[in-house]
Each structure stands twice: as structure tokens, then as C-alpha cells.
Amino acid sequence: MSHIRILPPEISNRIAAGEVIERPASILKELLENSLDAGADNIKINIGNGGHKLVQVIDNGCGMNRDDALLSLEAHATSKIFNSADIDAIKTLGFRGEALPSIAAVSRFSILTRPSGNDEGTLISVHGGKIITVETAGCAQGTSISAKNIFFNMPARKKFLRTPQTERHHIQELTLLTALAYPEKSFELNIDGKQTIKVAGDGELLTRMRLLLGGETVSAMVPINYEEAGIRVYGYAARPGLSRSSRKEQRVFVNRRPVKSNTVYYGIRDGYHTQVMKGRFPPVALFIKLESSRVDVNVHPAKREVRFRESQLVGQIVAAAIRGALRNDRVIAVQPDKTSSSDENSTKNTPLQQPEPFFNNMSFVPETRASIGGLQKSPQETPFDFSRSDLFQGKKAGNKSQSLFEDDKDSIANTSLPVVADSTFKNLDIKGMLGKDFIITANSDGLVLIDINACQRRILFEQLINAGKTKNKGRQPLLIPVTTDISVSDRALLEKNIDYFEDLGFEIEHFGGNTFIINAIPTQFPQENIIGLIHRILDDLSESFSASPRTQMVQIAQAVCRQAVKISSLPKEGYRKLLDELAKTEMPYACPNGQPVMINISYSELNKRFAKK
Ligand code: ADP
Ligand code: MG
Q1: How many CB atoms lie within 10 A of CB 81?
Q2: Which mutation among 72, 95, 257, 303 tests ligand 1's pocket best, with the greatest number of atoms within 8 A of CB?
Q3: pLDDT-based confidence at 566, cuts 50/70/90?
Q4: Nearest protein CA to atom 27 of ligand 1, as residue
Q5: pTM of the predicted model, to two decimals?
Q6: Residue 16's closest CA among 94, 80, 70?
Q7: CA 592 to CA 565: how far, in whole Å?
Q8: Around Cβ 403, how many Cβ atoms within 10 Å?
Q9: Protein residue with its CA nearest to atom 21 in ligand 1
Q10: CB contact at 8 A, 208 and 217
Q11: What pLDDT is recorded for position 365?
Q12: Can you tell me the distance from the alpha carbon of 591 to that of 454, in angstroms, rounded to the nearest whole number?
């Protein structure tokens, strides 16, 4: 590492200012960043009493000579940036030159360090910002920094420290994030003398994910490996069905720096699209790698946030990466992880998914589904006969509205991990029915329960949306067009969105006043009680419609599916057809409102429940 210099004011003034040391975890964050910037590959952390008593980081990085060690304690002293241009393309984790002096000012601080090539190290003690001793001392190559009794000299701030338990939690999460970002490095975390985390740096992200997040969570995730426009996105994302009620487990890294980024969160949400209910958050560990000049890290004093210079593009690429990974999950077997973030060049030897264009209207429907359009030409050709009126009796589904835009139902997604993938559908053996709503099936992994209603909604939804994307609208003209009057508010809604209804296969004409004429409906629909259906769709929409143009058509299709699909008993051949149709959908695991279509209970789960070995 180059030597440390004090930044001139015109440079230091450009750096996002603000208090960095809020809590023990912020001290740890700064120290870890320094160790990583110093090239350490073995980092040991010791914490005492949630960090209130001790935060210590010991590394085997480049170390410092005596002059640098003394300089490192000065404000705006850094070896990482020198001029204005450096700020615009920051390549290190640190750059502010503020951490060490700030930590030393609020604690009993000591630094023991030795660079390679020096026989002896330096030990400096600082209390509340005042240098107490500077001595020569023997030590291994690298640096050990400890901050004791944080805020000992600032009783007012000490009062605001959280409980050791809360701090421990933050410290563990931070260590976990850092260890995930650097799978090629070894980390050890000791809390009050007890080893809490220890991972050896073998470079395998997957191994590290399993160790840190648990095998069960990781087995419900799919690998992501995508690149477009020089932006690489890799990591893991939960299969639909595994989600949490907060964003806590959406771990996002930009150039290996853990960050909070709305741009990326929107991209994730978009990638899952209709597969996650509103208010639910699928766990992800998502790494974004791009040229350092394309992202501004000088935004937040604690470097928690970043600003992408092309945020829209990044959001789109994240969405495409997730979408592609979820889609691939069922087409090909889940591949063992090839994403070793230690190998900066792994892009070269890793087969990447083809970059795909971002869809402006519907982000998950691929271009290549012309076959479905063909299937929709006539009801007779449809493998699963949606024209059966008993499937579409269209009674309003009670109060159990499944709007994506409502608060979620917490019970659903936490319990079911659909670890179904790949050849699931072909090998499903139909065992029978459970009540009226579920098909019981089994495959070599165990039991798979299918919710018929959710399944039908998913199939219909994709057929409608695909029809909307092709010239072939899959509509059936009505021999006798039906006329209906609708309320003033519904009229505005219908008029505004009449084109979208057209795209989905309806043909609706404004007759004047509040009267509309329905000339055609999608092929899958029964011809009876069309008026009732249209009214229910409009009711549903008026409860939930949001004006984001990108999703209007999707919202209408969702409402259509909610209202048109009605549970009914099927003849046994019907189940097979239904599953075949489901197998053709892009996103078979969840209905368009994000509710699971299937729940898998594996043999190992059954064995566990029956207390077998
Ligand atoms: P910054 O990281 O923004 O440069 P810091 O105050 O965190 O500022 O650190 C000041 C300087 O001290 C760094 O630029 C680096 O040269 C040196 N330094 C800090 N920690 C270490 C370490 N663990 N190993 C080697 N050098 C370090
Ligand atoms: Mg630093």
C-alpha cells in the first residue's frame, strides 16, 4: 500500500462528511474495511460485552511503519486517494481518512502494527484522542487495532448505546456480510471469548452461504450469474415461496461493499414480479460488480449507500438477472455454484446466461411463447379446456380477495419452501384429491401438493399476457354482443384502460353515457354471465389499481384471473392436463398474486416429522 498523506482541504471538503462512529458495529465496520484494503486474508475479530468493552480486529495485511502508523491517526490522512479524480472512481473500501482518528477520539485505542521487511513493529496507545505512548514492539506482520471502553469520555453518548445484545446482533450481521463478500478470506469472530463465526477462505461462495445462512435456506435458493452492459450480477436468490416479512435478508453488495440500495431493491422486486406478494421479501445475496467510475460511494458518511450513475439500467439488469435465474431453475437442473467471487476473472470461464432485453410492459414474459398464441386460436385446441364453464363460474371469491396490493398473509410464505424444480412436472405422479382444492402428487423427492385454483390463475394469467404480446389476441367474438351500464367511477377506469383490455383479448366499445358493448372476450372464457364478470373485474380493479403504467396491463390481467377462475372438481384426466399446462408457464410456482401454487414436503422432512432416522 502506498504511504499515507493528509488530504488537502479542497479534496477533503468533497468527501461526504458526518459522524461515522455511532456504535460498536460502526467501529468494527471501519476496522474491517481497513484490514481488507490492507490486503489481509486472515481476519480475527474479538468483541467484549457487545463491543461496549472491546472491539478488536487483528489482520495479516500490509501493516504500517512507525511514521504511517502515527499519520493514520490524523484527520483526513489516507493512503487510498490523492486527488479529485480518485474520488470519482473509488476502488478501495475506505477513502475518507477519518475512521482511525474518530475511533481513537472516543475510546481507549491502541494500534500494533508491522509492515513486511521491518523487524520490529510499533505500538501506539491513544486515550480519548490523546496519544499516550509510542513504542517499538514485537509483533507478527499485519495490524491489530483495539478500541476499548467506547465513549468512556463522552457520558452523554454512552447513554445512547444500545444493549450489548442488540450490538452483538449488529456485529454478527456485519461479520456475516463481510465474510459473504470475501469467500476467499478467513474470518473468525469471538464474542466474549466464545467463537461465534469461523470460516476458512476456500473461495467458494456457496460453501460460505451454507455455513453462514444455513443449508435449508440456501437449498431453497437459485444461483444467479448474469452480465449485461458491463454490469455483472451474481449470487443467490430465493425460489418463490421462501420470503420474509422484512428486507433484512436481502443482502446486497456493490463491488463487494454491503449496501442498502433502493435501485437494487426495486430491481429485485421487479425480477420476482408477480411471484411475491406485496410486503414479502425473498432472501437474496446479490453481488453487483461494475466499473468503480459507474458508482458513487461518496454519498453517505458510513458508506452504507451508493449512487449508481445509471440507476435505471442497474435496476433493469438486476431484474433480468433474477428473472433469468428463476426461469432457468426449472428448465435445467440447478447447477453447482461456479461463482467464486475470489476469482475476479470467473466471468470468462463461467457460461453466462444470454443477456435478454428488458421488457417495458411486462418484465417476466419472454418473447418466445408464440406457441401459446397458437394454442389459443380455438378452444378445442387448448390442451386444458378453459372454455369449460364450470371452471369459470366467476363467483366473487368471498372476502378472500387475493390482491397483490393488499397486506400479505403472513402465514403462507414462511412455512412452505417449494424446493421443486427441474423435471418436477414430468415426474409428478398424481395420487388424488385433497378436498376440492388440492391435487396430491408425489415425485422422487416426496409429496407435492398443488392448489388447483392458484394453478389455474397462473396458467390463465400467462395465456392472457402472452396473447397481449402477440398479434393473435386469442379472442372469441360474441354472436350477440352484450350491453351493460356501469358506474361513473368504473366507467373512467374502463375508458382509460380499454386498450389494455383489448390486448388481453376483450373487445369493448363505448356506446355513449355509461353504456358499453362487449363484442369479444378471451377464448378461455365461458360465454355466460359476461356482464357479471366484467363488473367484478372492474370492482376488483377499483380497489387496487395503481397508476404505474408499467404494470397496468399486468394488474388488469391479475384482476381478470382472480375473478374468472373458480374452483371446481375436475375429472382425473383434467389434473394431468392442468399440470401439463402449468409446466408450460414461465413461473409455475406462484399464482399471479404471489401465492404458492405448490408445496413440497420432502421425504427427509417427513422422516423428520415421524422422528425417523
Ligand atoms: P481510510 O481507510 O479512509 O484511508 P482510516 O482512518 O480508516 O482512513 O485509515 C487511515 C490509513 O491508515 C489508511 O489509509 C491506511 O493507509 C492505514 N491503515 C488503517 N488500517 C490499516 C490496517 N489494518 N492495515 C494497514 N494499514 C492501515
Ligand atoms: Mg478506513
Answers
A1: 25
A2: 72
A3: low
A4: 34
A5: 0.67
A6: 94
A7: 12
A8: 17
A9: 34
A10: no
A11: 26
A12: 5
Integer-rounded Cα Rg, in Å, for the chain is: 29
pLDDT digits (tens, 9 = 90+) for 242-258: 888 889 999 999 999 99
Ligand 2 mean position to 37 CA, how many Å?
Answer: 8
CA of 570 to the centre of ligand 2 (A): 65
Alpha helices in 255-310 (DSSP H): 262-272
Please work out whether the CB of residue 24 comes within 6 Å of at least one atom of ligand 1. Answer: no
Q: What is the pLDDT of residues 409-446, one digit of tens each?
A: 332 333 333 334 445 566 788 888 888 889 999 888 88
| Residue whose entry in the numeric block shows the C-alpha cell 431453475 | 329
| Cα–Cα distance, 107 to 55 (Å, whole number) | 10
Residue with the smallest CA separation from ligand 1 atom 19 is: 34
Closest atom of ligand 1 relative to the 3 alpha carbon = 16
Cβ(98) – ligand 1 distance below 6 Å: yes
pLDDT of residue 299: 85
> Under 8 Å CB-to-CB from 18, ≥6 apart: which residues?
300, 301, 302
Distance 61 CA to ligand 2 centre (A): 13
SS3 137: strand
CB-ligand 1 contact for 96 (6 Å cutoff)? yes
Q: Is 187:45 a contact under the CB 8 Å cutoff? A: yes
Which residue puts its alpha carbon closest to atom 2 of ligand 1? 94
Nearest to 46 by CA among 67, 16, 24: 24
Check pLDDT > 90 for residue 230: yes
- Phi/psi region, residue 594 (left: phi>0; alpha: psi -120 to 50; beta: rest), is left
Ligand 1 close to Cβ of residue 1 (< 6 A): yes
Closest protein CA for atom 13 of ligand 1: 78
Is the per-residue pLDDT at 405 higher than 60?
A: no
171-180, 291-300, 322-331, 506-515 — most confident range: 171-180
Nearest CA to ligand 1 atom 20: 34
Query: Which atom of ligand 1 sits closest to the CA of residue 93?
Result: 2
Q: Is the pLDDT of residue 562 over 70?
A: yes
% of the chain at pLDDT higher than 70: 81
Which residue, by CA, sits nearest to atom 16 of ligand 1?
Answer: 79
Cell 409446466 -> residue: 583
Q: What ligand has the least distance to the C-alpha of 146?
A: 1
Check if 591 has its Cβ closer than 6 Å to any atom of ligand 1. no
Query: Hunting for cell 513493529 — which residue is that?
Result: 121
- How many Å lie between the centroid of ligand 2 and the Cα of residue 302? 10
Distance of alpha carbon 185 from alpha carbon 311, whole angstroms: 30
Q: Residue 111: is its pLDDT beyond 90?
A: yes
- Residue 278, Ramachandran bin (φ over 0: left; ψ between -120 and 50: alpha; else beta): beta
Give the number of the atom of ligand 1 that is nearest the alpha carbon of residue 98.
Answer: 6
| Residue whose CA lies nearest to ligand 1 atom number 7 | 99
Rounded CA separation 590/553 (Å): 19
**Residue 74 reports pLDDT greater than 70:** yes
Nearest ligand 1 atom to alpha carbon 101:
6
What band does 575 get if pLDDT is binned at 50, 70 and 90?
confident
Q: How confident is residue 283, by pLDDT bands cut at 50, 70 and 90? A: very high
Residue 419 and residue 217 in contact, taking contact as beta carbons nearer than 8 Å: no
pLDDT band at 547 (very low <50, low <70, confident <90, very high): low
